[in-house]
Automatic annotation (TrEMBL):
Active site (UniProt): C300 (nucleophile), H757 (proton acceptor)
Annotated positions binding Zn(2+): C164, C167, C184, H197
GO MF assignments: cysteine-type deubiquitinase activity; zinc ion binding
PROSITE patterns: UBA, USP_1, USP_2, USP_3, ZF_UBP
GO biological process, one term: protein deubiquitination
Pfam families per UniProt: UBA (PF00627), UCH (PF00443), zf-UBP (PF02148), zf-UBP_var (PF17807)
PANTHER family associated with the record: UBIQUITIN CARBOXYL-TERMINAL HYDROLASE, UBIQUITIN CARBOXYL-TERMINAL HYDROLASE 14
Residue ranges annotated for the USP domain, each copy included: 291-795
Keywords, sorted A to Z: Hydrolase, Metal-binding, Protease, Repeat, Thiol protease, Ubl conjugation pathway, Zinc, Zinc-finger
Enzymatic reactions: Thiol-dependent hydrolysis of ester, thioester, amide, peptide and isopeptide bonds formed by the C-terminal Gly of ubiquitin (a 76-residue protein attached to proteins as an intracellular targeting signal)
Domain UBP-type: from-to ranges: 140-248
Name of the protein in its database record: Ubiquitin carboxyl-terminal hydrolase
Gene3D superfamilies listed in its UniProt record: Cysteine proteinases, DNA helicase RuvA subunit, C-terminal domain, Zinc/RING finger domain, C3HC4 (zinc finger)
Length: 797
């Protein structure tokens, strides 16, 4: 609740917990707490500036500094309120006036006054979590500046007319301060910018610092350190420029600085006109299930994901339908209770109580037309709880919506160990079939998953000629070359997902040596709701992250029946269950793994910790740099990522001896997925007590667990006749037909998942609706071809 909500806020003067008008009576009945500070706020109308344009809105100054909350930067909007504070005694809500306080004994009056002052002076959650001052222009002195060794090669740079020495580009030119080379800057996500020649020159020579020509003035210039990967200061810049014949005091600015470019991008991302469809004016929508969410500072990824999740019946039934029971059973501090905070957010989104037009501060009479903005919900307490202890989600930085979805599902799993688990709506089993090409014998394994990651085969673009022409024009320095987006058929993406993968270094137990094998992935079960992630974010050959600018004709309906797993085929022989030779020396005292030193070295050179590189090579069986790199990318968030490599059975490893205590939380998490405690214990001991690896292990060793007891529930597949046999080992999954219809998608704008903006589109009663933080509008042309995460629900047959 917020002070300015209808009915105000009731703060318990003993526990300091705040409640809305509809819940304070319930809290009183539960706890017996009677004294509350009742705070109400009424928004003040903002005064127009003297230079107002007359439109009813005071003109906002254009940002001139890449900063938040300081002079020249982006504004942190502060609303002004008139505040009314009084003490209320429940259950009759009897008001205690200032006159009443005066007649009370001194001790009582003093205690009440101190409590009131303490509550009013305390920082609210909103104040503690809001974006504070931030200055993106603060730069550090480069460590290379003081002792930079410049080459005496006779190079002199003219004051104008610069061109890239490789591609003749005339814009975005950077001069290397070591050898005076003039080269173009980085290429941006939309194809503009440069052709990366300055960056490539650094990689070839190691010369670390460059200055952007056209930004040099007597006051300074843009200086970038490739080695430090940041904009930097160079205290000796006049001297370094003079070495190549440039007089800093006579130079004039002719190009936008990097700060000005970033400000322009941030302004574009935040403007409603940019992300509304095709520049049309969209009709605002209000009502139940049409509630906006405030952006708390790069929290659009959270807003988009939670809007979609609360359109799924499983989450509605678990949290919103049971909100009265959840609140009645909430612990003494509900701010730290997962179920309470999720239920509060879900109720706020679905009830419609907060789906009202935001008042126009300049319109005192409310006569103007409703704007797209809503009062909406500010999910500050929810964000603080789900992000607590997480290195990324606890910050105000932009995040990957897919990673947050998995993080939230993981929290739901941990908090639904008993009772219904709404994340089962997305859970499915994947069957992997590996066939040894030499013996033609097969191996089957299953694993659990929640998201289908759909590859993007760029070589299957249908507009290849247009792409090549646009690329040719850019390389020739044609600044008017149009930005062409690759058109990729959805069928090509599905074909790339389902086609067999060639394994070149597969150790076959049938032939007792490495050979070639094929791996085919299929669905062992189909979930009620299917999430598809378009793998737009990838790594180039130099392992630099990049975003693929593609358009994919994602269909409204989907039939995946042909991808149903079939299991062992008639007459098909299975590979013998024989372990490969250990990757360690025969010296039992040392037990040192035999690792490919060249692969370890290559990974270390990329900046990864040595022990993480050793583990990557070990756990991928010395199969090469690509496999090891994929392992690193999949395990970078592991808590033991940089911990020393501990071999199974080594006495120094945690969780490897029978007397070593295992994490009860890890055990409970695995048991909640349908496995017995003994099975969970075995998995954790086999993987050094690391939860993520234990889950992977247990799904790849289902056959080994068949003889062990299985907890109740198991998989929801059909049990054996008469129910005499226990259910098969594995997680509880829902299964059905593989036919789906699209009901929501999340889109991303920007160069990477770490920046930009997210919005979501959700189909409500056959009408597509766009949710852009606090703005909720009817969608005219939903950009279904540009989405990042797609949500499908099963079609009833």
């Amino acid at each position: 609740m917020r002070y300015e909500s209808e009915g105000g806020l009731y703060v318990c003067m003993n526990t300091f917990l705040g409640f809305g008008s509809q819940y304070v009576d319930r809290y009183h009945a539960r706890t017996g707490q009677r004294a509350y500070l009742h705070i109400t706020r009424i928004r003040k109308a903002k005064k127009e500036d003297d230079n107002s344009s007359g439109s009813g809105h005071p003109p906002k100054k254009k940002p001139t500094r890449l900063a938040i909350g300081i002079e020249g930067g982006f504004d942190v909007e502060q609303e002004l309120y008139e505040e009314d504070v009084k003490v209320v005694i429940l259950p009759d809500r009897q008001e205690v006036t200032s006159e009443d306080l005066a007649t009370m004994p001194d001790v009582v009056r003093e205690r009440v006054s101190l409590s009131m002052a303490g509550i009013m002076a305390a920082d609210s959650v909103s104040h503690a979590l809001q974006v504070q001052q931030w200055d993106g222009e603060v730069r550090q002195e480069s460590r290379h500046a003081a002792d930079l060794k410049q080459l005496d090669n006779g190079v002199k740079i003219p004051p104008s007319g610069w061109r890239c020495e490789v591609c003749d580009l005339q814009e975005n030119i950077w001069m290397n301060l070591v050898d005076g080379k003039l080269l173009c800057g980085r290429r941006y996500f939309d194809g503009s910018g440069g052709n990366n020649h300055a960056l490539l020159h650094f990689r070839e020579t190691g010369y670390p610092i460059a200055v952007k020509l056209g930004t040099i003035t007597p006051d300074g210039a843009d200086v970038y350190s490739y080695d430090e990967d940041d904009m930097v200061l160079d205290s000796k810049l006049p001297e370094h420029l003079a070495h190549f014949g440039i007089n800093m005091m006579t130079m004039e600015k002719t190009e936008r600085t990097m700060t000005e470019l970033e400000i322009a991008v941030n302004q574009r991302v935040g403007e409603w006109e940019v992300i509304q469809e095709s520049g049309t004016t969209l009709r605002p929508m209000f009502g139940a299930g049409l509630t906006g969410m405030k952006n708390l500072g790069n929290s659009c990824y959270l807003n988009s994901v939670m809007q979609v999740l609360f359109t799924v019946p499983d989450f509605q039934n678990k949290y919103v339908s049971n909100i009265d029971k959840i609140i009645d059973e909430a612990p003494s501090d509900p701010t730290q209770d997962f179920k309470t905070q999720v239920a509060k957010l879900g109720y706020g989104l679905l009830s419609g109580e907060y789906s009202k037009p935001a008042p126009d501060p300049a319109d005192e009479n409310g006569a103007s037309e409703p704007r797209g903005d809503q009062i909406g919900i500010a999910p500050r307490m929810f964000k603080a709880l789900v992000g607590r202890g997480h290195a990324e989600f606890s910050t105000n930085r932009q995040q990957d919506a897919q990673e947050f979805l998995l993080h939230f599902i993981n929290m739901v799993e941990r908090n639904c160990r008993s009772g219904s688990n709404p994340s089962e709506a997305f859970r499915f089993l994947v069957e992997e079939r590996i066939v040894c090409q030499q013996s033609q014998k097969a191996k089957y394994t299953q694993r659990v998953d929640y998201i289908v990651q759909l590859p993007v085969p760029m070589d299957q673009a249908t507009n290849t000629e247009e792409l090549q022409e646009a690329e040719r024009r850019r390389e020739e320095g044609d600044s008017s070359a149009p930005t062409v987006r690759a058109q990729i058929p959805f069928t090509a993406c599905m074909a790339a997902l389902s086609e067999p993968e060639i394994l070149t270094d597969f150790w076959s137990s049938a032939v007792q040596s490495k050979t070639t094998a094929t791996k085919t992935t299929r669905f062992a079960s189909f979930p009620d709701h299917l999430v598809i992630q378009i793998k737009k974010f990838t790594f180039g050959l130099d392992w630099v992250p990049k975003k693929l600018d593609v358009s994919i004709d994602v269909p409204d309906t989907l039939d995946l029946s042909a991808l149903r797993a079939t299991g062992q085929q008639p007459g098909e022989e299975l590979l013998p269950e024989v372990a490969p030779p250990p990757l360690m020396t025969p010296d039992v005292e040392v037990k040192a793994p035999v690792l490919d030193d060249s692969t370890v070295s290559q990974l270390c050179e990329m900046g990864f910790p040595l022990e993480a590189c050793r583990k990557a090579v070990y756990y991928t069986g010395n199969t090469g740099i690509d496999a090891a790199m994929n392992w690193i990318m999949s395990h970078m968030d592991d808590p033991d990522f940089a911990a020393p490599l501990v071999l199974p059975g080594c006495s120094s490893g945690p969780g490897t001896t029978p007397t070593e205590s295992l994490s009860e939380e890890h055990l409970a998490t695995i048991v909640s997925m349908g496995f017995s405690r003994d099975q969970a214990t075995k998995a954790l001991r086999a993987t050094s007590n690391v939860l993520e690896r234990a889950v992977d292990w247990i799904f790849s060793h289902l056959d080994d667990l068949e003889s062990m007891d299985v907890s109740e529930g198991g998989r929801s597949a059909a049990e054996s006749e008469g129910g005499r046999d226990p259910p098969p080992p594995g997680p509880r999954v829902k299964d059905g037909a593989g036919k789906y219809e699209l009901f929501a998608f999340v889109s991303h704008m920007g160069t990477s998942t770490m920046c930009g903006h997210y919005v979501c589109h959700i189909k409500k009663d056959q009408q597509w609706v766009i949710f852009n933080d606090q703005k909720v509008c009817a969608s005219e042309k939903p950009p279904k071809d540009l989405g990042y995460l797609y949500f499908y629900r099963r079609v009833a047959e």
